[in-house]
Amino acid sequence: MKIKFLFAILLINTFLTAQTQKPLFDYDYARFNYDEKTAFLEIYYSFAEYLLQPIQEEGNSFVKGYLTISIKDIKSDSLIISKDYKFRSLASDSLRNGKNKSLIGTLAFVLPFGDYLCKLTGGDESSTLQYEDQFAFHVSKANTPSFSLSDIQLASSIKQGAVDVNSVFYKNSYEVIPNPSTVYGEGLPVIFFYSELYDIDKEVKSELLKVDHLLLDVKNNPVLRKTKYVGRKNHSIVEAGALNISKIPGGTYTLAIILTDSIQNISLASSKKIFIYNPSIAQPVSQSFSDNDFIASEFASMGEEELNEVFELSKYLAKKVEIQQWGGIREIDGKRNFLFNFWKVRDQDPTTSLNEYKRDYFKRAEIANSQYSTFQKKGYKTDRGRVFLLYGEPSEIERFPNQIDSKPYEIWQYNSLEGGVQFVFADLTGFSDYLLLHSTLRGELRDDNWQRKVVSN
Predict the structure, then answer these.
(1) Which of 166, 176, 239, 290 maximizes the CB count within 10 A of its CB?
(2) In whole angstroms, what is the distance from residue 44 CA to residue 31 CA?
(3) DSSP secondary structure letter of residue 96
(4) Distance (Å, rounded) from C-alpha 97 to C-alpha 94?
(5) Does residue 155 sit within a domain?
(6) How far apart are CA 324 and CA 311, in angstroms?
(7) First-last CA distance in the chain
(8) How far is C-alpha 22 from the geometric centre of its chain's CA atoms?
(9) Is the same domain home to 267 and 291?
(10) CA angle, 125 as apex, 119 and 128 as ends, to 5°?
């Protein structure tokens, strides 16, 4: 088995200043052709430097972290890669002046064709802070009669010419600095992207192939388009591009590269979801109000206080960039439009007139308010309410309300999540506000010594 590893760290400025929603690290990945039996997988990651605890060594301040990656072959259920990486970086001034910077790196592997599950765990060596996530992916050679495309790699910058050929970010005469957050906008107004076009000399009739760079909104309407033509004298070529989105309203978009043989009327596309944060650019309210779906929705008639309440309730599902977007909206029509689009993109079955996912979420909110409200909080704002909203009814609840030697606590069991997970809540104050102390679900608060917090004094 041929496996290649690359590892590097680079410190770059990040442009989003809200820190409460940012996880310890972001990641993205892209797949590229390698040979007839293997493919090339690149994983891009960025650690939020301000979340790492600086330590003093050798008279300087450093941050130290680690990244563990495992890749399992799904078909054989065998672990083919398990690697631990550590990094140590001189702490930048951002830790003292409040500016955000990220430690950017990349990993690369050559993998046989197949289906895989990748798990990533990142942490701070100087504290207990840790974050985990996973994704499934497939690698194979494209089964097309002619040309094909790689995935799109999103980047914060792309340079060609006088670049460091020894840089881990160097490939095919370009230095491509990845943007694992997939967020652009204020502070990063240009979407840079890298892709590879394969077999463009194979079964192609057009002398020139048409290449479109498109930015599509949530309705798949193009908001930006660039078109160019490439010759087919080479077998494969690099397609590196840029789109200026400084005037584009914030939201979720799709970046697409479309390659077309006009004579045979054959087109192939590669796409990637991105997020734009432009708080100073007004939402296109007039366009939304002409949409019949929007006019018929409940958001079109809501007042500002109700809209704010709905977003607070919906915020558990929001991405960090969406929370920042909401904070920048001042007009009531913009808030109506935002919430309409927020829930429309989360409709899991758009072929039906009803957004069942939204309906079920708000039903759970009613239950949370009726069962978990306290004197000071609505039910959905409590820890139990949040967990109930996100994950639904537990498979089992163990309640310990009147233990002699402990404060009241509950253990919620979810058998359908990750093969079985637990949440532990406790009433530490005596006001029936049960706080989350521990969970075995990835991404949630974990404290294996939670029992010490519920022991009565």
Answers:
(1) 176
(2) 12
(3) H
(4) 5
(5) no
(6) 12
(7) 58
(8) 10
(9) no
(10) 80
At residue 96, the pLDDT reads 47
Domain range enclosing 240? 177-281
| Same structural domain, 217 and 242 | yes
Rounded to whole angstroms, the maximal C-alpha distance in the chain is 83
Cβ-based neighbours of 111, under 8 Å, separated by 6 or more: 3, 38, 39, 40, 41, 71, 80, 139
Last residue of a domain, one of 281, 297, 328: 281
- For residue 161, being part of any structural domain is answered with no
Mean pLDDT of 264-291: 72
Question: What is the number of other CB atoms lying within 10 angstroms of the CB of residue 126?
Answer: 14
Same domain, 198 and 300: no
Model pLDDT for residues 73-106, shown as the tens digit of each residue: 999 999 999 999 988 888 765 444 444 577 888 9
CB 149 within 8 A of CB 168: no
**Is 68 found in the same domain as 24?**
yes
For 233-242, b/e burial (b = at least 16 CB within 10 A) is eeeebbbbbe
Whole-angstrom distance, CA of residue 456 vs CA of residue 69: 41
Note whether 98 and 125 are same-domain residues: yes
Specify the 3-state DSSP secondary structure of 421.
strand
| 323-343 tens-digit pLDDT | 888 888 888 888 888 898 888
pLDDT digits (tens, 9 = 90+) for 132-177: 888 899 998 777 667 889 999 999 999 988 788 888 899 989 999 9
Q: In the predicted model, what is the mean pLDDT of the chain?
A: 84
pLDDT for 17 beyond 50 = no
Residue 276 sits in the same domain as residue 289: no
Give the whole-angstrom CA distance, residue 20 versus residue 163.
36
Local structure of residue 406 (DSSP, 8 states):
B
Tokens of 303: 């007042």
CATH of the domain at 53: 2.60.40.10
Radius of gyration of the chain (CA): 25
d(CA 44, CA 56): 28
